[in-house]
């Protein structure tokens, strides 16, 4: 059955084995299909969020925003903007280093697009199911800084240079609390695999990691603030501070090159809000216990072939819609913040990061590691929720680690999982 | 599923095409680093070269090392280098001119050195990896995170203790030493590079 | 995708790094050569980790190399900045005060 295939590659194998047997062509085709799907996600999210930004900005400022293109709500405005930008003249200032000037937008774009590779949109719906997925996302998002520096330096203009340097300092500094706050739910989950982390949060709102311990609760808000800063959104948007720096690092850019920067920015806003929703807000799980259990059962039944494959597929589609709406809610809050709060000065930005957010995140990290010890000694439990996290974690890990990945000698990795399971069930059996 | 995917991707034509692309990119960008005339362009080519090297690491099933390369090397060390370039540039795009004779001599020496290295490396028959079940790590899937983490904590789940050949202790002590080392070195470097009054001409 | 292909890439990176270190007059350029050399070594480590019995140890060593390279780049850059602040040039040929 078409939809019962474990992955797109398995589905294609039926066709490619007939055409070109044994050459592994289905993996190449599966990669191409994943890439096309992700390019659509990457390209559509800026289009939608730019429209949303203009409407929300308009409403906050007591006006309407775009209303003409595409009917009553102006929802085709992004398309009109895109057409306008594409047909603009391709300028490169004479004082600019043309190789670096031309290639800087692509660094930003490629970095934020590549982050979508390891972002799961639903249970099992991820292009690359890497064991260290969160680490890979943090690594790829840190590549944007280089594009900003190149843009600022190579434009040959002092506004660009100042904006680029300030922006690079800000983004590099904010990577530290971003990584530390992203690690707080990882301590709770015991895995860097975003698919596993999302899967562990099923079964109800009380299982979401934001409610796992008070440190994770605070960590969500700190992470959100830091993610807003690292996407260079207001109130941290000195790089584009129109009132101070003309345009910051993108002063000399026009047309489609300028729009590449903003595609990268909105896409990375969606990516970091997606990461926040997987790490803290349950990802693709709805949070309503009976609904979650029904979807989980439907998904498993569809995958194993015992139930209807179409219902399993639709369960995954519903999960994807839940995930996208959570991430979109995060982006909406970021847009709201932009048009509500005044901009911070560069020294205030750096002070906030280095003097306040880094110590706070270190404290949260320390607290999150000590919390299970506190629970175990004071309350003789492993979590405050009815079902011990370790039981669900072990089930998730057992599902996601196929037998071939386990080292052959009955050895430490397997016993490590079993040990964690045992200690968790000890906690569960109160 | 990932394991099977990676293994087959390695065997499939797609895998070796990707390897060829990234290997070529890494080598050509490294040559471009040497050949560039401006320091900022050298940094640009170096970023591309190190990024391609990270892709090669991903292809060699070393996911964690590849991600660490991107995060630390490209996203950290190179940004530091570029900041250093900008802080020490006394003029825009200062050119580093080398005479043609020096260029040719440098190229010849480099080629000879490369031939020596390649000849010495290809003259060795490297031991084959042990076949699956003798305690070797199943890194084909790229899931090296837990084994690496445990190795840094001093345990080696990927090794068979009964096989005396393979015994290697965990890396707890070097891990601790390197943590303190990094802390001390970075504090020292930050102190050394603090803003001082600049000398008025020399 | 054999071992020798990876070793060739590592050799090319290493040689480019050596030539960069030897021929660049800019101090930061020399540092970039050092980074290339260390990367060539890393490629070798990871290739041996995959294709021989070295196993996990190769990847652990390459992680150590990455961390140490970051530390060394920071110190070298601090020295270069100090030199620039004192002499207003980063040209390595001008660093000849100790010449006899």
TrEMBL record, chain C:
Chief place of localization: membrane
Documented EC number(s): 7.1.1.-
Taxonomy, superkingdom: Bacteria
Keywords assigned by UniProt, alphabetized: Cell membrane, Membrane, NAD, Quinone, Translocase, Transmembrane, Transmembrane helix, Transport, Ubiquinone
Record GO terms (molecular function): NADH dehydrogenase (quinone) (non-electrogenic) activity; quinone binding
Keyword Translocase applies: yes
Gene Ontology terms describing biological process: ATP synthesis coupled electron transport
Membrane-spanning intervals of the chain: 6-23, 30-48, 60-84
Topology in membrane: Multi-pass membrane protein
Compartments in which it is found: Cell membrane; Membrane
Region forming the signal peptide: none
Gene Ontology cellular component annotations, sorted alphabetically: NADH dehydrogenase complex; plasma membrane
Enzyme class at the top of the EC tree: translocase
Pfam family, one: Oxidored_q2
Reactions accelerated catalytically: a quinone + NADH + 5 H(+)(in) = a quinol + NAD(+) + 4 H(+)(out)
PANTHER family documented for this protein: NADH-UBIQUINONE OXIDOREDUCTASE CHAIN 4L, NADH-UBIQUINONE OXIDOREDUCTASE SUBUNIT ND4L
Assembly and binders: NDH-1 is composed of 14 different subunits. Subunits NuoA, H, J, K, L, M, N constitute the membrane sector of the complex.
NCBIfam families: PRK05715.1-2
Similarity annotation: Belongs to the complex I subunit 4L family.
Function: NDH-1 shuttles electrons from NADH, via FMN and iron-sulfur (Fe-S) centers, to quinones in the respiratory chain. The immediate electron acceptor for the enzyme in this species is believed to be ubiquinone. Couples the redox reaction to proton translocation (for every two electrons transferred, four hydrogen ions are translocated across the cytoplasmic membrane), and thus conserves the redox energy in a proton gradient.
Name under which the protein is recorded: NADH-quinone oxidoreductase subunit K
Naturally occurring in which organism (per UniProt): Planctomyces bekefii
């Amino acid at each position: 059955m078409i939809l019962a295939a474990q992955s797109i590659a398995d589905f294609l194998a039926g066709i490619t084995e007939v055409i070109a047997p044994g050459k592994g062509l289905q993996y190449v085709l599966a990669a191409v299909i994943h890439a096309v799907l992700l390019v659509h996600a990457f390209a559509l999210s800026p289009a939608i969020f730019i429209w949303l930004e203009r409407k929300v900005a308009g409403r906050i400022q007591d006006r309407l925003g775009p209303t003409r293109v595409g009917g009553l709500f102006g929802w085709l405005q992004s398309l009109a903007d895109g057409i306008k930008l594409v047909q603009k003249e391709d300028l490169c200032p004479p004082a600019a280093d043309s190789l670096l000037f031309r290639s800087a937008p692509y660094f930003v774009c490629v970095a934020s697009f590549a982050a979508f590779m390891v972002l799961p949109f639903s249970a099992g719906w991820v292009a690359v199911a890497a064991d260290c997925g969160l680490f890979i996302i943090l690594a790829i998002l840190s590549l944007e800084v280089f594009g900003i520096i190149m843009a600022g330096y190579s434009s040959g203009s002092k506004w660009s240079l100042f904006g680029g340097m300030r922006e690079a300092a800000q983004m590099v500094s904010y990577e530290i609390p971003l990584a530390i706050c992203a690690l707080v739910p990882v301590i709770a989950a015991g895995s860097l695999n975003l698919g596993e982390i999302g899967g562990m949060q099923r079964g109800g709102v009380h299982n979401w990691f934001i409610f796992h311990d008070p440190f994770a609760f605070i960590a969500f808000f700190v992470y959100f603030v830091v993610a807003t800063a690292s996407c260079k959104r207001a109130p941290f948007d000195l790089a584009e501070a129109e009132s101070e720096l003309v345009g910051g690092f993108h002063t000399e850019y026009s047309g489609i090159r300028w729009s590449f920067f903003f595609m990268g920015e909105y896409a990375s806003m969606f990516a970091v809000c997606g990461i926040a929703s997987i790490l803290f807000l349950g990802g693709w799980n709805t949070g309503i216990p009976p609904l979650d259990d029904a979807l989980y059962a439907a998904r498993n039944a569809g995958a194993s072939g015992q139930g209807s494959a179409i219902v399993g597929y639709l369960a995954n589609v519903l999960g994807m819609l839940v995930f996208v709406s959570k991430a979109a809610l995060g982006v909406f809050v970021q847009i709201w913040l932009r048009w509500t709060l005044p901009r911070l000065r560069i020294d205030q930005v750096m002070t906030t990061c280095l003097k306040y957010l880094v110590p706070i995140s270190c404290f949260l990290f320390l607290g999150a590691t000590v919390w299970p010890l506190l629970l175990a000694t004071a309350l003789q439990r492993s979590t405050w929720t009815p079902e011990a996290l370790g039981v669900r974690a072990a089930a998730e890990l057992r599902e996601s680690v196929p037998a071939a990945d386990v080292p052959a000698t009955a050895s430490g990795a397997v016993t490590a999982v079993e040990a964690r399971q045992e200690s968790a069930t000890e906690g569960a059996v109160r | 599923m990932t394991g099977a995917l990676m293994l087959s991707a390695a065997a499939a034509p797609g895998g070796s095409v990707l390897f060829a692309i990234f290997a070529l990119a890494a080598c050509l960008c490294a040559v471009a680093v040497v050949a560039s005339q401006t320091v900022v362009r050298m940094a640009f080519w170096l970023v591309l070269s190190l990024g391609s090297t990270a892709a090669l690491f991903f292809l060699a099933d070393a996911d964690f090392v590849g991600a660490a390369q991107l995060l630390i090397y490209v996203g950290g060390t190179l940004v530091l280098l570029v900041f250093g370039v900008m802080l020490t540039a006394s003029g825009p795009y200062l050119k580093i001119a080398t005479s043609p004779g020096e260029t040719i001599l440098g190229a010849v020496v480099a080629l000879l050195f490369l031939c020596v290295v390649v000849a010495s490396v290809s003259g060795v028959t490297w031991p084959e990896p042990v076949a699956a079940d003798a305690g070797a790590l199943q890194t084909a899937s790229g899931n090296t995170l837990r084994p690496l983490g445990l190795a840094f904590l001093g345990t080696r789940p990927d090794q068979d203790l009964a096989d005396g050949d393979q015994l290697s202790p965990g890396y707890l002590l070097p891990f601790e030493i390197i943590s303190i080392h990094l802390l001390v070195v970075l504090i020292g470097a930050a102190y050394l590079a603090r803003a001082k009054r600049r000398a008025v001409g020399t | 995708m054999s071992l020798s292909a990876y070793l060739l890439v590592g050799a090319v990176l290493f040689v480019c790094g050596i030539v960069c270190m030897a021929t660049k007059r800019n101090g930061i350029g020399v540092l970039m050569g050092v980074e290339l050399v260390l990367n060539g070594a890393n490629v070798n480590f990871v290739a041996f980790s995959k294709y021989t019995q070295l196993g996990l140890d190769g990847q652990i060593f390459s992680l150590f190399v990455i961390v140490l390279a970051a530390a060394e780049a920071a110190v070298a850059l601090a020295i270069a900045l100090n030199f620039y602040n004192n002499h207003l040039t980063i040209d390595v040929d001008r660093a000849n005060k100790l010449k006899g």
